[in-house]
Write a structure and sequence with these properties.
The protein is an alpha+beta fold. The chain has one domain: 4'-phosphopantetheinyl transferase domain (Ribosomal Protein L22, Chain A, Alpha-Beta Complex). The chain contains eight helices and 15 strands. The strands form three sheets. Strands 1, 2, 5, 6, 12, 13 and 15 form a seven-stranded mixed β-sheet that branches. The chain has a six-stranded mixed β-sheet with strand order 7-11-10-14-9-8.
Length: 346
Amino acid sequence: MPTSALLRKFRDRDPLVVVIAIIIEYPHGRDRDHDNDNDNDNDLRRSQDIRTAALVDPDYGGLQRVRGGVMRAVEIHIATGTQALARLAAGAAVLDAEEQARAARLRVAADRTMYRAAHVLLRRALSRQGPYAPAQWRFVRGAQGRPEIDTTACPDAGSLRFNLAHTPALVCCALVQGRPVGIDAECRRPMQDARAIAERFFAVEEAAAVAASGSPGSAAEAATFRALWTLKEAYIKALGRGLTMGLDGFAFRLVDGPPARIELHIGDDAAHPTAHPRAHWRCALLRVDGERCTLAVALLAAEGGRLQAFLHGSGSSQPAVPQAAPPGLDLAASTPGVELSSIHYA
C-alpha cells in the first residue's frame, strides 16, 4: 500500500480492508451428532451443492469438503502470483450482486482482479467447511462494518467465522468455528517512512524495535515494520474494531528465534475493547516465498491451536494434497501453543 494511502487510513480511522484465509486445528474440537436421517439428508444436499457448484465454478471440486462442516482447525487459504489471482478472478460468476458492483467500481484493473480473486477464494474455502456451494453464501455487515455470514440466508452455517486480507499479488482468508479471528498480509516493498509511521502510531516499545532493527529505509527496518504492522492489524480485525481503536494501546514483541516467540502486551487503559486476557490470544507470523510477503493471524483460543495452510494456484482440479515440507511458506513466529501443522496444495 502506498504510504500516502496508509497515512490517510490512519488519519481517517477507516477500517483496513484485507483478505486472507486460514484455519487453526483445535486439539479438542467438538463433533456434532447426527442421526441417520440427518446424515442421509445432508449427504444428498452436499452432492446437489457440489453438482451445482461445478456448473458455476468448475474449479470448486479441487477442495475437499470437511464432512459435517465441523472445523477442528484454523484454516489459512493463500493465493499468490498474478496467474493464481487471475485464475481465481475468472470464477467471479459465484459472487453476489453487491460484490460484483463493488469490484466494478474499482478503477484499476489489478485492484478489480485482486478483489474478485479474494472473494472467490473465500467462497470456495467456506464451501469446504459448510453445506453451501460457493455461489450460495450470503453476507451482512456487523456493527463495525465487518463482513459476516448472513445466518438468515445461510442457517446451516453454524458459528463459522472468517476474515479476509489482500495485498498486491496475494490474497488470503482465515476460517474458524465459533472464534474471533483476524488475518493480514503485506508484501515486501521499499519503505523510507517506516520509522516515522511507527513513531506516530505504534506503541513506544514497537517504535523503538523498528528503529533498532536497521538503518532508516533499510530492508531490515521494513521487515520489522511489516511484522508488527500485520500482527497489529490481525489482532484489531479479530476484535472487530478496525483502526478506530488506535494502534498504540497494545504492543507486540518478537523475542529470540527463529522462529521467534510472539508476546502481546495490552495497556491498562480501561477503554481497550477486550475482556479477554492476553494469554488467551494465539498469534502467528508466516512468511511466503522467503521474505517476499508476511502474513499474520490472531485468534482467541486459550487452549492453543494448529494452523493448516492451503496454497492455491497449482491449476489442478484434484483434491488438495498435503505436503510434508513444501517450499515457500514457513512459520516465522508464534505465541506458545501455536504450530503450523500441515500445508496443502489446492
